[in-house]
Amino acid sequence: MNLFNDIRALVVDCLGAMAAEGTLPAGLDTANVTVEPPRDAAHGDMATNAAMVLAKPAGMKPRDIAEALAAKLATDPRVAGAEVAGPGFLNLRLVPTAWQGVVGAALAQGKDFGRASIGAGVKVNVEFVSANPTGPMHVGHTRGAVVGDALASLLDFAGYDVTREYYINDGGAQVDVLARSAFERYREAHGLSPEIAEGLYPGDYLIPVGEALKAKYGDRFLNAPEAEWLPLFREFSTEAMMAMIRDDLAALNVTMDLYSSEKALYGTGKIEAAIDTLRSKGLIYEGVLEPPKGKTPEDWEPREQTLFKSTEHGDDVDRPVKKSDGGWTYFAPDIAYHYDKVQRGFDLLIDIFGADHGGYVKRMKAAVSALSEGRVPLDIKLIQLVKLFKNGEPFKMSKRAGTFVTLRDVVEMVGADVTRFVMLTRKNDAPLDFDFDKVLEQSRDNPVWYVQYAHARVASVLRKAQAAGVDTSDAALAGLDLSSLSDPAELALIRKLADWPRQVEIAARAHEPHRVAGYLTEIAADLHGHWNKGNDTPELRFVQDDLATMATKIALARAVGVVISAGLAILGVTPVEEMR
RNA sequence: GCACCCAUAGCUCAGCUGGAUAGAGCGUUGCCCUCCGAAGGCAAAGGUCAGAGGUUCGAAUCCUCUUGGGUGCGCCA
User: Fold this and answer.
1) How many domains does chain A have?
2) Cα–Cα 20 to 30 A to A44, which of A85, A348, A431, A514?
3) How far is the CA of A166 from the C1' of B2 (A)?
4) Which domain, by its residues, includes A7?
5) Is strand B within 7 Å of residue A433 (CB)?
6) What span, in angstroms and rounded, lies between the C-alpha atoms of A118 and A504?
7) A190-201, pLDDT tens digit by residue?
8) Partner residues linked to A287 by β-bridges
């Protein structure tokens, strides 16, 4: 149920009728017609730009169209008034029952209120985290994990068919480094002192891996040449790291649908097939790249390489797919992996990358564009840095990982719910400040607390109503006559509820889950504001002496609670019933 | 040198993918607080939306240039 869509449909119907009557030319494109809440509530309940959008193609004055449209709209029972304003805005006022119906719909649909269908029939793949399996997840990964997971939930709520996927970068040189690092811990487990050379991973988290290797292999590799143990140690430690990463994700309540392995692409011919597909389109050639202007690497020398003509698909320079030693560059398996996603039938691909991979965006888009013949869009969301603070001071910690703060550290300090919400309070491409004290603060300027407090207040009045003898089941509340919810303050709160389905669509279309957090903060503020009004105006309180009156007020409170918990569900945050 | 991201109130940031007089929190100032759930409430002040052009009925939003920050730039992922 989306009241704005309903009214927009009404507007489009009226425009169609006007065309049929000859008031408007036939065949006008109404795609740009919007129905939105006006910024200033004094302008009414909803405003449409229809007259202004259509004025030029219709060859008419905006006000003339608006007048005629107003007359048509006014005949609908939901419309209480329609008036032309400004350059040609049409401001609509709806009858109270139209708004009260939103409360009933929220109660009847519960957690599904606001569910949209804009993604119906669209298969989307959200690839996120994809951290190298060389250590525990740190804060940077955490933000990517939360954004990806929440975006996936949001798209699911908007009707998309969503797959959450993790691409394991287990095919490159860094897993050899991991194996060598584990070998040193393996030696350590045998009582030898490890030699953590420059470039190896120094973190303590490999100590148990070394012990496990000792338990599995005894001392047989202690003096063996690297070639004998490297493949075994690589596989063993990669699996150990992935187990740890899965645990980290579980601690954040992130569950992947699929883990795809880079290594598994080798030897299957998939990389060759992907490159051959590009070659068949004339996009692979042997050539020499120009050195970057202004900043030539010191060891630069011209070299002939196998190149992908990504410039044909919007990139700035062509990109190598093979190294000079004949091996694939990291780009090649990535191409194959994305080709695989295209072949699996996805209609939309989304990658969540760290901001330091920004330079990778164009080539990846070029590859997907080429491989899907432009059919499958690839959206890449770059995740900016998280700056940690404690008491306003920059925060550093080195517990188990050596030099960085891990996901585990954060979750243990503030909990998964707080971590997730805070990570979603900013746009993904803006830096985020995360203060361990502020996020736990009980105050107005802590959005997590503020939203949870609103939900707890709703739960509180529900308990009171139930104790007083009101049937507080959603079914009972949804069946009430809500026409007494007619105070301007109550209608304002209901308008906010009505905006929820709209916000879902906007956020889903923009692939921006942080908008949900913003909306929740707003509706929480509205609930608290309404609550405070009750202090001066007892008629507005949710708890009333008259049970029938209380039931209708409770219906409104519960509807707000339903929307808050639906929004929190998208963010992956558990709503609380009381604040303790 | 080139590419991408960013620039909005004193501070931290929203801004509905082009709409009407650009919003919120903190901070500041002034009142109120025997009130469903304390951890406050109401109100005021505060802006050349980095700058300059352009697109159009209309621009913080789109395009171009400039300034100032961040990130990246062949055989590392």
Assistant:
1) 3
2) A514
3) 32
4) 3-94
5) yes
6) 10
7) 999 999 888 899
8) A305
Q: CA of A353 and C1' of B70: distance in angstroms?
A: 16
Rounded CA-CA distance A530/A527 in Å is 5
Half-sphere exposure at residue A246, Cβ-oriented, CA atoms within 13 angstroms: 13
Mean pLDDT of A392-408: 71
Q: Is residue A475 one of the residues assigned to a domain?
A: yes
Strand B contacted by A540 CB (< 7 A): yes
Measured between its terminal Cα atoms, the distance across chain A in Å is: 35
Q: Is the CB of A280 under 7 A from strand B?
A: no
- Report the nucleotide nearest the CA of residue A360, measured to C1': B72
What tokens appear for A390 in the block? 């404690």
Residue A547: Cβ within 10 Å count: 13
Per-residue confidence (pLDDT) for residue A397, from 0 to 100: 62
**Phi, psi angles (nearest 5°) of residue A79:** -95, 120
CA of A55 to C1' of B57 (A): 9
CATH of the domain at A481: 1.10.730.10
Burial per residue of A241-273, b for 16 or more beta-carbon CB atoms within 10 angstroms, e otherwise: bbebbeebbebbbbebeeebbbbebeeeebbee
- A417 φ/ψ angles, rounded to the nearest 5 degrees: -65, -50
Indicate if CB(A541) is under 7 A from strand B: yes
What tens digit of pLDDT does each residue of A258-303 get? 999 999 999 899 999 999 999 999 999 998 888 887 767 777 888 8
Task: Return the top range by mean pLDDT from A345-354, A396-405, A424-433.
Answer: A345-354
Q: Which of A251, A268, A285 is a domain's end point?
A: A251
- Is A528 (CB) below 7 Å from strand B? yes
Query: Which CA-bearing residue is nearest the C1' of B37?
Result: A457
Shortest CA–C1' contact from A40: which nucleotide? B20
Nucleotides in chain B with any atom closer than 7 Å to protein CB: 1-6, 12-17, 19-26, 35-37, 39-42, 56-58, 70-77
A453 within some domain: yes
Distant-in-sequence, close-in-space partners of A418: CB < 8 Å, separation ≥ 6: A439, A440, A448
Instruction: Tell me which DSSP letter residue A330 carries.
Output: T
Q: Which of A65, A94, A123 is the last residue of a domain?
A: A94
A85 touches strand B (CB under 7 A): yes
Region A480-504: what's the mean pLDDT? 92
Do the Cβ atoms of A200 and A181 come closer than 8 Å? yes
Handedness of CA A180, A181, A184, A190 (dihedral sign): negative
Burial track A355-378 (b if 16+ CB lie within 10 A, e otherwise): eeeeebbbbbbbbbbbbbeeebeb
According to the model, what pLDDT value does residue A163 have? Answer: 97
